[in-house]
């Protein structure tokens, strides 16, 4: 298993996160092929890593309201 050091990446809050500090995620654009995602309320907690193409498809589906079961 490969280890990815996320201690120095730049995080940004998702534009879809709500403004009252509730449902917030942060993502990093520091990698070309991976997109780290974490809970902004737990910045030292775990992060999920997504393939960049998969993340792009997910974001497109969210923006378009086309997620199955949504």
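Sequence proposed for the structure above (70 residues):
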């Amino acid at each position: 298993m490969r280890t990815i050091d996320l201690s120095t990446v730049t995080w940004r809050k998702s534009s879809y996160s709500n403004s009252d500090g509730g449902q917030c995620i942060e993502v990093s654009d520091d990698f070309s092929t991976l997109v780290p995602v974490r809970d902004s309320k737990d910045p030292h907690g775990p992060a999920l890593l997504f393939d960049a193409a998969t993340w792009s498809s997910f974001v497109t589906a969210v923006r378009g309201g086309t997620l199955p079961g949504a």
